[in-house]
């Protein structure tokens, strides 16, 4: 049992009826676990393979070269290089009394949990939060291709998927995509160094602790190593997202912004990265290094991402405050680094901040 891989080709080439059928199929999968996988979505194997090649070259840069472009750990969009252990995904979500993962609103989480990964975050040139790129002398061609070619292709796919969700939810086309016109999506390349399985035993270190992502949705390309799991909301436990071997396969994960917009009608995918299936429950062995590439599709910073009227009814009252996308995003990034912005006003007449995300 794993996430299905849905052929997405009809979304660009099919009849209107086929597009709608596909949109409904994709949206139904999101309702199950907040996640699905797509193939035949427009990005070629050649393009994705090239992105991995650039990624491997980047992480082989010297420590000094990476340190020179380090991300500033504050409550602002992440840009540049983050060293192993810098980000603490365990601090952004926790289980509520019903066992569901919610946005964490306090400091009552284990402060010692470590994510064993390094990453580099960037956005398009000209963004108000500029990316510190490595010099072209260090890695010639990296900036040009990753920013000029790969990022736009990923942005296009993310908007196609969001259009499919608009159709699947029966809201006007453009409901989500019309508030993405400033293209502030972020792309992240991630490297998980080799890790002895024995290091996982104490429960403090994972490749990535359970969390939800912050944007509208995340596209995730993973190499053949495995280890990613998504919370199984149908049967309980976790669903291993075992790589199919198709290099174009991309995971799509619902993020917090879409949860807020739909007033919890869609729930975010809870995911973590653990030992691959072949090394699970073993006390020895070494997990091989792992590379992934994520596109975080984001709403315009000043767009209000509070619940849409369609999803606020007497049975489903408004559950989230009407924050801007930037307020929501920075609140979440601040949690990663214990650099939280001041409390952003609680929802008037609705649930308080402490009640967080729900079902
Ligand atoms: Fe994530």
TrEMBL record:
Gene3D superfamilies: B-lactam Antibiotic, Isopenicillin N Synthase, Chain. Residues 183-314 form the Fe2OG dioxygenase domain. Belongs to the iron/ascorbate-dependent oxidoreductase family. Keywords: Iron, Metal-binding, Oxidoreductase. The keyword Iron applies. GO terms for molecular function: metal ion binding; oxidoreductase activity. One of its GO terms (biological process) is small molecule biosynthetic process. This is Clavaminate synthase-like protein.
């Amino acid at each position: 049992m794993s996430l299905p891989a849905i052929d997405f080709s009809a979304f660009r080439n099919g009849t209107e009826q086929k597009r709608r059928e596909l949109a409904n199929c994709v949206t139904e999968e999101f309702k199950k676990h907040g996640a699905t996988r797509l193939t035949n979505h427009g990005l070629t194997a050649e393009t994705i393979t090239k992105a991995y090649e650039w990624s491997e070259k980047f992480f082989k840069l010297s420590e000094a070269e990476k340190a020179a472009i380090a991300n500033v750990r504050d409550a602002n969009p992440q840009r540049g290089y983050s060293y192993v252990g810098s980000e603490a995904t365990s601090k952004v979500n926790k289980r509520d009394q019903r066992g569901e993962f919610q946005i964490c609103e306090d400091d009552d989480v284990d402060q010692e949990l470590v994510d064993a990964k390094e990453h580099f975050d960037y956005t398009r040139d000209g963004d108000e939060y500029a990316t510190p790129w490595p010099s072209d002398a260090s890695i010639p061609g990296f900036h040009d291709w990753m920013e000029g070619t790969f990022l736009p292709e990923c942005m296009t796919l993310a908007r196609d998927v969001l259009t499919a969700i608009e159709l699947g939810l029966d809201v006007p086309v453009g409901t989500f995509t019309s508030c993405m016109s400033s293209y502030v999506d972020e792309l992240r390349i991630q490297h998980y160094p080799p890790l002895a399985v024995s290091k996982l035993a104490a429960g403090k270190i994972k490749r990535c602790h359970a969390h939800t992502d912050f944007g509208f949705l995340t596209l995730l390309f993973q190499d053949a190593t495995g280890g990613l799991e998504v919370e199984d909301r149908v049967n309980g436990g976790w669903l291993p997202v075992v790589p199919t071997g198709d290099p174009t396969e991309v995971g799509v994960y619902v993020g917090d912004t879409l949860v807020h917009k739909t007033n919890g009608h869609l729930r975010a995918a809870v995911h973590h990265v653990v030992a691959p299936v072949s090394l699970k429950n073993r006390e020895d062995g070494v997990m091989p290094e792992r590379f992934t590439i994520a596109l975080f599709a984001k709403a315009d910073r000043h767009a209000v991402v509070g619940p849409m009227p369609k999803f606020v009814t007497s049975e489903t009252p408004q559950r989230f405050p009407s924050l801007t996308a930037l307020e929501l995003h920075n609140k979440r990034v601040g949690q990663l680094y214990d650099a939280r912005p001041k409390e952003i006003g609680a929802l008037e007449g609705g649930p308080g901040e402490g009640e967080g995300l729900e079902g």
